[in-house]
Structures are given as C-alpha cells and as structure tokens.
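Repro case for the chain-ordering regression, as requested:
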Amino acid sequence: MKAGPAIAGLALIGAAALAVAQAPPAPQVLFRDVAREAGIRFLHQAAPEKKYIMESMSGGLALVDYDGDGLVDLYITNSLTVDTRNDPNAARSALYHNLGGFRFEDVTDRAGVGHPGWAMGVCTGDADGDGAVDIYVTGLGRNYLYRNNRDGTFTDIAEQAGVAGGGWSMGCGFADYDRDGRLDLFVSRYVSIDLDHLPEFGKGGAGMKGEGRGATCQYRGVAVQCGPRGLPGESDLLFHNDGNGHFTEVSAKAGVRDTHEYYGLGIAWFDFNGDGWPDLYVANDSHPNYLYENQQDGTFKEVGFPMGVAVSEDGSEQGSMGVAVGDYLNGGRPSLLVTNFAEEYDDLFRNDGTHFTDVSYRARVAPPSLPLVMWGDAFLDYDNDGWLDLMAVAGHVYPQMDQVNTGAAAGYRQPKLLFHNEHDGTFAEVSRRYGPVFTDKRVSRGLVVGDLDDDGRLDAVVTDLDGPAQVLRNELEPTGHWLILRLLGKGGNPQALGAVATVQAGPLRMTRYVQSGTGYLSQSDVRPHFGLGAQARAERVEVRWPDQTVTRLEDVPADQVLAVRQP
Amino acid sequence: MRPLLAALGLVLQAASAAPPAPADLAAIVTRIEKGDTAGAERQLRRIVAASGDPAARQLLARLYLDQKREAEAVAELRQAALVGPLPRDLGLRLAAAEMADGHPALAEQQLRSVATRYRSVRALLQLARLQTRQKDAAGALATLEQARDLAPNAEEVLNAFAQVSLSLRAPVPALQVLEPLARMYPSVAQYRYMLGVALMQAGDVQSAVSPLREADRLEPDRPLTLTALGLALNNLRTYAEAKPCLVRSLDLDPDAVDTLAALAESEQGLGELEAAETHALRALARRSDHAIGNLALGMVRMKQERYEEACAVLERALAADPASPTAPYQLSLAWARRGDEAQSRKYLELYRQKVRELDLRVAEVRAKTGLSGGGMKR
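-- result from build under test --
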C-alpha cells in the first residue's frame, strides 16, 4: 500500500512537532534598543581600517543630570581620525537632554560641547564649586573642562583651570581625595603619540621602542595597527583643586604619577578599605594595574601587588580596559571587575577586607570573557532582586581580525556579556536568554547604566566604534521593588561623589558607591539604585557622605526616587 | 634473490675501487652463486689468513651474515675496518653491532666514516640516534642538519630532526620542519602532536590547540596527546575544556604523573579544591619536585588561606621551574597575607625579574619564528 497524502502529512506534522519541541525558548525581553525613537542618533567617527591605535580607543560616555531637573542626561564622546585630524569639526561629540518618557533632545550645539577633538573619555563633577555639574572630556592632545554655565551652555575652561593635560589622556574621575571639600581630578594617560610621526601600519618604525620596533604591528602574521606594546607610555595626572578656580598637578607629590609610564585606561575612585578616604584604582593595558591606598595626608601608597589586584592569578600582566566597583556579595565591601583583552579573562577581585582575591573562575565570570576584548563594564541589579549583576561590552581593536586564524579568539565584532548574580558568590552567564541585544556582534567600547526614565529599572547606553550608539531600555517584567537615592551633596560636590549608601530591606543589606569615572572611560548614573526584591519598604537607609557625616532614614517606602540632602 | 647475492655486486664495486685483490674474488662469488658456500668459505679463509685482504674479509663477512653467523661476521668486519673503509651497508652493520656490544665510540666512528664517504642519510640518521641516546642532543641536531642538506624532503629525516629539536626544547627549528611535515602528511597524528608541542614550546599556546585537537581526532585516546592538549588548555585558562582531556588521559594511563598534576591544575582553576588537592598530592607522591603539581597544590593552599603551607609548597614549585613568574607572584601574595612585607617585596622583585626574562624569551622566539600574538598581550 502506498502512503497516501494523509499519512505523509502526519509524518510532516510529527517532524514539525519535534522541531517545535526542540526549539530553544524565545528570548525574554530585558533591554530593547530604543535609540532612534528616543532621538539619539549618534554615530561614532570611524576609520574603517583602524590603522592607528588612536582610532580604536575612543568611546567614553556619561550619564549626568547637568541641568538639575532630576532626569539623567547623556553625553557621548566622538573622536577625530588621522584622515580627519585637520578638521576639528569632523567629529561631533553630543549632549542629549532628557525630556522624560524616554525622549531626548540633541542640545550639543547650543551647549557648546560638540568638538573636543580627539575625545576619548568623560567624567563629571563640580570642578569650580559653584554647585553645578561640569563635564570633563579627555583626549589626545589636550583635555576639555566644560564649565556648566547653569543656562544650558558650557564654556571650556580647561586651560585657565590648569587641567588641559596634554599627551593622550583616557580615564578620568573626580574625588575629594584630601577631604578639603573640593573635588580633585585624576586622569590616566595611555601612549605617547606624535601625530606627525606615526608608526607605520603593520611595520612600526617611527616612535617605536624595544620589542623589535615593529613586532607589535603584526597579529598572527597579519598587518595591524602598532601598539601599545612597543610605543612609549605616558605618566598619569592628579589635579588638586586649589579652590580658586584653578587646579595644580600634584601626581608626583601624591605618589600617583606612574613613573613606569604604563598604558593607563579605566580608573575608579573608591574606598576599598572603608577608612573613609578615597582610594584609586588604575587599569593599565599590558602592564600591572595600580591600587593607590590613600594615606590620609595627601599622598598615596601603591599596593596593587600585595593586595592582589595588579595582575591575574597566575601573575600575567593583562590588557586591562574597564573597571567596575560593586558590593556583589552584599557584604558591605566594594569588589572590582576589570575587563581585559582577548585570551585573557576578566578579573573579578573579591574584596576580603584585608586583601582582594581573584575569584574570576570560582565566580564563573572568567570563561565567557576569554575569547573577547572587553571594555565597558558595570555592576547593576537589572532585575531588582537586590543583588548586583554584571554587564560588559566587547569588540576587537583590529578590523583585520577577520582575516586571521584566530584560534579561540572571537572576530572583530563581538557580543556583550550579561551575568546574573546567583546570590552565592557566583554568576550565571545569561546573555543568550535576553536575545540579540546581547548576542549581536558589535565593536562596543563605553557602557553606562542608569535609570533613564525613573521607572526603577536600570537602563544602559553603549557606544560602538563602527555603528550607532545603543540606548537599551530595560523592559524586564516582572521585576522587584526598588529605590533610587538622589543624593544632593553640599558645597562643591553636588553629586555627593564619594558617598556610600546602604539600604536594609528585609534580609537584603546592600551598599552602593557614588563614583565619578566608571567602566571604560565613562560615567554611569551617580544615583545609587537598589533592587528590593519582594520588599515593599526599606527598614533603613543610611548615607555616609564624603565628609563622613551620616544621614539615616527609617521605614522608607519602595518604588521611588528619593532625594536626600546632605545636612 | 637472496640478500647476500644482492649485495655481491656492491662488494665487487667496492673491491674494484680498492687496491687490487690477491685472489680472484669474482670466481668465489661465482662459487657462491652456484651454491658451494662451504667451498667459498674455505677459499676466503685461506686468502684472509694469507694476506688479510679486506675485500676478502668483507666477502667472508657477507657469507657469515647470510648464514646468520653474526659474531663471526662482525669479527671479520672489525678486522676489515682496521685496514680501510667498509662499504656503506657493512659499515652500518658494523656500527649497529658495535652499539649492541656497548661500544658507542666505535659505532660513532663507523657511522661518521660511512656518512662522510658515501654521503649516507641513513648513516647520519643512525648517528643522530646514537648521539641522542648519549644525551648529546646538540650533536644530534647538527648531524640531522647535515641529513637535511642531503635529503631536504625526506620524511624520516624531518621527523627525526623535529623530535630532536623538541627534546632540546628548540621549537624554532622544530617548527621549520613540522609545519611542512604536517602539511605533507595530514593523516599522521604524530606530526600534529609534535607541531602542537612545538608551538607550546614557542609560547604560542593558542595556535597549539588546533593541531593537538587534530592529532586527537586522527588517533583518539592517545594519552600523550590528551595530556598535551590538557596542558595547552590549562595554559589558556580554559580549565573546563582541559579537564575532560586530562581525565580521559588518566583513565588510559592512571599513573602518569604529568597528567595528574595537570588535572590538579584544571581543578584548582575551576575552584574544585578538594579534587585538586587529591590529584596534586597523588602527583607529588610520585614525584615530589613536580613543578605543576607543586604549583597546583600551592594555589589550592592559597585559596584555603593556609598561607604558611602555601609558602612551603610554592617554594618547591619555584625550585622545580625557576623560569615561571607564577610561583614567585603567589609567594609575594602569601607573604603579604602573612604580614611580612619584606618577604613579600623580595618575591615581588623575583616575580618582576621572571616577567622580564619571559618577555625577552617570547620576543626572541617571535623574532625568529614570525609568530605574533598582537600588540596588547604577551
């Protein structure tokens, strides 16, 4: 008997049913890229071949409420390229004013912050003590301090203020390291580059040193941009705020000059030992990282090695990029996540009180990061369960990667990583669960997180060297309760940079740190965000201000942005 | 045709090149060909007794060899060699006999003679093997260089050259021959394996993984390959991938100390401290100075916050592998956590020195091989 159509149909249906049964579950929605509908159409200036190292390193961005309206605005850096270097207007950085409801307005031209040349990174703080938040932009050649004129415009006062720097600046962050009530400024610097004598693509030559002069201009036999290895580095800068609108560069006196001239990138001010004085971490590319312990007398002691945060567990110097700080164990201590180059793992340094321990593998953060070149990173509680999760973005530096037999390394465009905190000191890599926003491959650099629409769910913004910036709206449902603190610092520190906020809500005791300069050359929303899970109230809220005075609140309802003013 | 007869032509050629023989060896050969070996032997003995003629001795030796009378043949060859050079095949035969009798110097002399006189690749290969057995790997490598000059594409020569290079931890010359060997003989697992090992020795562990995986595919369940692959993956810190290779290797060869130690390294990397400790201790029970075993146990002790014990074990790791920066780095951490800043600084300095030395070595290998890992990493 021949099988009739019905029987054949049954077979097909059976196969279809099997296929349905085996199909992976549809991705959940966590983030949706709403950049276009939000009015953010930012495209980074791109040199297609990235023949020079400066063309691969830009991409810092900042979330900052520059006009004090309570909504978080957005500034994104853009950078010139070698081909466009003679046209200062060729690269346009951008300031977007948050209109609420996830709508933004490009106010760059009116604000006058659009053309800081070879812009790389950005951080914010009240540099001149007038109570308004200023914007500091690092870059190649010089840096810009955009003073907030409190009328929606800014004026570059870097030269007058003495913070223009020079050379090639990358990471930056404000902190009152000597607790004199004025915000100081640290700037990491990278490579010494002479634009008139650039190392030749794939060959090296001018400006190169050591290591065969051109040895680092090849990657597995393919010509690539030179550096950083083989190029001279640059020391770092610490600008002390003199209080008269001027800063003095004191890095040598303070002991943070970086006499080795390592290749500095991401930085983080944070009080790692809980003594109330801001300490400083500097991620260095291809060299040991620094941890400067504040000696409480205007100087620092470099303790990266004895504290266990200078290199990887096996002693390898890594190509470190971004730095994130967070109390992911809810133990009251800030730990560190440092992103690194491909074939190196991202370091999760757990703060054990007297020292840090590299728990990258035990916490299951390391393996997914090995094939990727990772940059911006952040601790964030994306599902409001009261535990800090992790997010990091990636993209290689060599477009030529795709011509190379890369072994285990990923190609030029790379996916993002998202890790869910499993509440036991480990993380689960959940990127695929949330679909193409994470799995799509891009050339990402900066990452910032913050609540752009004050709905209690943390959103994210990501820059891309070869594509549009992504504005990732958090649409996860359901999520837990939440609380955001809008800290209103006094005097010359309106953002309360350096404050530490702690919330007790049921079994959860969470600590957040208010920082300028986070991730990779960027700055996230400074407002502490707490997921409260099932807790509809916080029994206790405590804010330790930068001057170590403390504000305590009790029985605070959840699901609100709570303004707390420093007494 | 019997082997002896096949060789007779060569004997006569050699004889004709030598001083004139007192007897007509050709007639004796004819007798042999007709089956009168006993008569031929008697005649040859008489000639040898009378004149010691080397050609007659050689022919007599061949006759003995054909009759499996090895000792008598060797005795004749030794006498013949005293007078003049032996033909290629007999020279090689005598060299083999000298080796078997424990006279390596005589064997070497014979092999050198054959190699020089006949530009013999086989003699050079045997000489290299002899030198390797005598732990003269550098001499072996030089000998094999000569063989490569004579037979640049001969598989046996390239294979031997690669093996000796690897035993000398000289990855650059090894890579020069293994890459073409692996291309020419894509189905030979051994060449992939050696290529992987050479790349690891050259410091390009990333590139080593692919040929090692291919070797494992071509010849599955070979413990050496599995262990090498596990070591490479450990080096790349992909411990979860390394572990199954090492577990399988250990199933096949449960007492392999290198595999036990490497498995301990994977496990400590994965945070499986109990298992890591067990395997490290088993490795160290077999070889207390095992570098990886001690390092793995030291890392376990660090994670257990047993810093005093960690210091002792890491010291042994450092002694076993003085070139590695990892042990001094961990020692600097251990002493810092014990509160001894001076000791911590001492090991930190040592660590830095090892890093500098490693950088130099890597740069040197890269300059020679053209291998490049890119600008941002070592």
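Ordering looks correct now. The first helix of chain B runs from residue 3 to 17.
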